[in-house]
Every structure is written in C-alpha cells, then in structure tokens.
Amino acid sequence: MWQLLFYVNVPVFFSVVVVGAVVAFLGVLLKRGNERLVTGVCRVVLAVSLLAYVIVLVEPVDGWGRIGGGGVNVSLIPFDFLSGEHVTENSLHWEEWMLNILLFLPLGIVAALLFTRWVRWLLGPLVSLTVEMAQAVLATGRQSALDDLLANSLGYLIGVTLVLLAGAVLSRRGRAERVVV
C-alpha cells in the first residue's frame, strides 16, 4: 500500500509545498499569539516524526527480526537517480527524489518553529545522515544513498526556509500596519 507514495507527480509535489507554506505561515502566526502552546505541539510532532522516520526508513525490508540479513547496499554517487545503470524508462527515481524532499519538509517546518541558530539548520541533515548510516550498518536490505541524504536535506531546508520567509513577511506586514496606524 505504501508504494502508492511513489506515484508523486509534479503537481502533487508543488501542492504539498504550498500546503507546507500555509502551515509555516499558520505556525508563525500561532506562535506569536501563544508561543508556549505552539512549542509544546511542535515538540510532540517532532518526537512522533522522528519515531516515524526510524520505523519507516530504517526498518529492514523483511521486518525488524531480519536486522543484518538484508545485505548492505550503499551508493555514494551524487545524482545517481538521473543516469545510473539502474535507471530505466519505467523507473520511479524522480518520484522517489520528490518523495524524499516532501518527507523531510514537515520536519524543517517544525524545527524552524522550535529551534534557533545552528540547530535549526543542521537537525534535518543530521537525522537524514543517521537514517542512511543506520540502513547501511544494520544491513537492512535498503539502499543507503547519498541521493537520499541530499533530497532529505533539501526538503528539510525548504521547510526551514518557508518558516523564515513567513516570519519575514509577517514582520514586514506588522511594521507597515504600525506605521499606518
């Protein structure tokens, strides 16, 4: 059933990014009104998200009872999804790339609402690196790929950027209203 997620097309991708932008704006607005509530909700969402990433992305192909039995498959070639030997006309590599971006976009939004400075920028790439390393070290039968790290990090950074842009737009708007009044 989860394989349906691989059928992400460009309109769906951009629709999800737009929804992410709306969520980022709402998060910034709500945080200005009730920072404590938004921070608490974001902490819960962050904890649940991290657990979901581990369960979904690190789980061995044949289940948790098969740790070490799936073999190690590591790809350190950047942008291999574009022209690797495994790419065929029917492969879903673009869809997988878009899905990986979308998978980490919400984490970027939540982290930007929770953290400041360097934690805000590094959490997503570090989580992605941890997932990819765990896939390789635990021999889960999944491919641990530099492409996944790049796509996940890009999605995360898009999420962070959406929150920062929302904050900048709302701050500018607030200043304009104060000047007019």
Automatic annotation (TrEMBL):
InterPro entries: Teicoplanin_resist-assoc (IPR053150), VanZ-like (IPR006976). The chain crosses the membrane at residues 6-30, 37-58, 97-115, 122-141, 153-170. Keywords: Membrane, Transmembrane, Transmembrane helix. Residues 45-165 form the VanZ-like domain. PANTHER family: INTEGRAL MEMBRANE PROTEIN, MEMBRANE PROTEIN-RELATED. This is VanZ family protein. It comes from Nocardiopsis alba.
